[in-house]
Every structure is written in C-alpha cells, then in structure tokens.
Amino acid sequence: MNKYSRITGTGSFLPPKRVTNAELAAQLAATGVETSDEWIVERTGIRARHFAEPEVSTSDLGVQAARNALEAAGRKPSDVDLIIVATSTPDMVFPSSATILQNKLGIAGCAAFDVQAVCSGFVYALTVADAMVRTGSAKCALVIGAEVFSRILDFGDRTTCVLFGDGAGAVVLEASDTPGILASDLHADGKHVEILCVPGTVFGGKVHGNPLLRMDGQAVFKLAVGVLEEAARATLAKAGKTEADIDWLIPHQANIRIMQGTAKKLKLPMDKLVVTVDQHGNTSAASIPLALDVAVRSGKVRKGDTLMLEGVGGGFTWGAVLLDF
Ligand code: UT7
C-alpha cells in the first residue's frame, strides 16, 4: 500500500501540421462549407488546431508525450509499471493503444490498457491510476491522453469540424508519502448518448452506421457548465478544501465560454484559469494533460500549487480531480 500518488513529470506533443482558422475556412470554402475565423474565435476561443498526417496514430502522439513526461520526471521507460491511455480514437479496434504504446516505449510486462470516457477520459484514467498506486498495484504509472480526432470529423458539418484537433498529453504518477492527488469525483449519465457520439461501428468487415462525430452543441454546452461546477464542488468537499484553495483551474479545453462559465460559478478570477484551447482546439482526452504541461513548462504551475482538473464529454461523462502538484 502507498499513502498517496503524485505527479512527478508532465509532457505533451502536438503533430507539426498547424491549421489556423483562416486556413481551415479557406479549405472548407472550396467544398461549399462556409465558416470564418471571426465566428470560430467568438463562439469558441479556438484560433488553430493541429492535424496528424495520415500514417500517424494515437499511440505515435502518445508515446512522444510519454517520453517528454518521463524525461521531466527523471524516469526511464523501464521504471514504468502501469500504462493507461485515455482515448476515443484508438489505433485499432483491439488491442488497446496502451499496449501498442508500451511496445513503442521498448518495454514489456507491465499492465497496459485504454480508458474510454471521451473528453473526460483523462480524469477517469488519472483516478484509476491513483487508486492502483495507492493500493500498491503500481509505483510508477504513465497516464496519457491521446487523440486523432481529425479522423472522425465530418468536414461537411461546420458545426463540429472547426472545433477539434489532434494531440497528446501525459503525466508520470508515482507513489508518494505526501499528496499528491487529494480527491476525485467521476460521473456518467448514459441517457445523453445521442448529444455527442460517433454512432458507427465495425460489423461483418464493414463500417455499420455513421463513423463520424455528431454533436448537439447547445445541449452539450448547457449540461457541461452545470456538471463541471457540481463535480468541482464535490471534489473540494471530499478533500476538505474550498474554492479559495485552488491555485489553478485546468478544465477540458473545448470552448473558452464553457471554461469561463465554470470559473465564474466557482468564483475564481479568470487569471486562475489555464487556457490553451486557442492553440489546439478540442483534443478530447488529450486536452487536460496538454494544458497542464503547457502551464508547467511556462512556469505558471509550480511545485506545491493546488490544481483542479475537470473533464466533460460524450457519454455523457464528467469528473474532476483535485491535486497538489
Ligand atoms: O468535448 C465536449 C465538448 N463539446 C463542447 O464543449 C461543445 C459545446 N458547445 C459549443 O461549444 C457551442 O454550442 C458551439 C461552439 C458548438 C456552437 O456555438 P453556439 O453559440 O451554441 O452556436 P449555435 O449552435 O447556436 O449556432 C449559431 C449560428 C447558427 O446559425 P443560425 O441558425 O443562427 O443562422 C449556426 O448555423 O452559427 C451557425 N454556425 C456557424 N457559422 C459559421 C454553426 N457553426 C458555424 C461555423 N461557422 N463553424
């Protein structure tokens, strides 16, 4: 048994191809789909996204983020005894992207599996890893969020295709005598499947149903702000803390308006909000560890800071993790 788990290193990786709103709008215009930089910035805060090349997979992005996190933690791949990848865009139907990533790291033997909770995937994966570290199943875990959402976008649907991008983020989570992860709070409500889903599946060697993302943006928006506040408050209560203890709010990077709405409900000043959505759009399960890594490397987030991580997404799923960095 270990008393706590603690993040000892962070890493991230964006594929090199960066597409600005203006560039995307020009590409879409060529196929008769109308949008603009002004609309995207005003409604979402997004200015650019990164798209992986066709031969690049989720595990390729994830392994780069993982290597960066291991380097920051001063650990080698051989130190890792658990790998969890949060993703909705796995390399294959099976095996998991985590096992493929494990092989790319040049290691074998440790437990490796994927967690599928869409944009809440990273807070789900971090909570599972924390539990496994505290019960002694692991000492040095890699928790990764990695996505190639560009593969599941309908570029004929302007209400969704301008929102998402590809990327990966990772943390090394180690056993520790001091906290660490303080509390977490996870939820799901499957009756909302229809408002955000990729309904297609593989059936008898063919794609059965629509294999592209569809979303009722307004329904997601309304649900998101409410549940993010509830999850944050529940997590603070479990840890015996209040909003005043939060140094940084690091929410899922989907839409600046949702993030600002959540910060406002928690009465947090906007300068405590970590925002990177402008640079990479919604990268689903990758967005929280990506934002965390950017905030750490820029010197914003420092050792000892108290962080509230929050995810919300398809399922509907949502949750929060409070931690001392
Ligand atoms: O990771 C999980 C997360 N998903 C989210 O967090 C998404 C949550 N939802 C949202 O972020 C917002 O609902 C959107 C950004 C998706 C949409 O913003 P909105 O303020 O709710 O816009 P809307 O859906 O009410 O659409 C307003 C107008 C419509 O035109 P009319 O009917 O008023 O003429 C849309 O057709 O904007 C139009 N529109 C666009 N115009 C230019 C929708 N998409 C676009 C576009 N470019 N890309």
| DSSP helix fraction | 25-40%
Which series of helices and strands comes N to C? EEHHEHEHEHEHEEEEEEHEHHHEE
Overall spatial form: globular
| CATH superfamily descriptor of the largest domain | Thiolase/Chalcone synthase
Uncertain parts: none
Q: Calculate the mean pLDDT score and round it.
A: 97
| SS strand fraction | 25-35%
Biggest sheet architecture: 5 strands, mixed
Pathway: Lipid metabolism; fatty acid biosynthesis
Protein name: Beta-ketoacyl-[acyl-carrier-protein] synthase III
Region (ACP-binding): 253-257
Pfam families: ACP_syn_III (PF08545), ACP_syn_III_C (PF08541)
General description of the model:
By secondary structure, this protein is an alpha+beta fold. Helix content is 33%, strand content 26%. The strands form five sheets. Strands 1-7-6-4-5 form a five-stranded mixed beta sheet, sandwiched between helices. A four-stranded mixed beta sheet has the order 8-15-14-13, with helices on both faces. It has a two-stranded antiparallel sheet with strand order 2-3. The two termini are 21 Å apart. The protein is built from ten helices and 15 strands. The mean pLDDT is 97. The longest helix is centred in the C-terminal third of the chain and has 23 residues, at 217-239. The protein has two domains: 4-176, Thiolase/Chalcone synthase (Peroxisomal Thiolase, Chain A, domain 1, 3-Layer(aba) Sandwich); 181-324, Thiolase/Chalcone synthase (Peroxisomal Thiolase, Chain A, domain 1). It is globular, with a radius of gyration of 18 Å. Helix 3 packs across helix 4 (97-104) and helix 7 packs parallel to helix 8 (256-265). The structure holds oxa(dethia)-CoA. Residues 35, 39, 43-44, 119, 158-159, 162, 217-218, 220-221, 224, 254-255, 258, 282, 313 line the site of oxa(dethia)-CoA (UT7). It is found in: Cytoplasm. This is Beta-ketoacyl-[acyl-carrier-protein] synthase III. Residues 253-257 are annotated as: ACP-binding. Its main location: cytoplasm. Its EC number is 2.3.1.180.
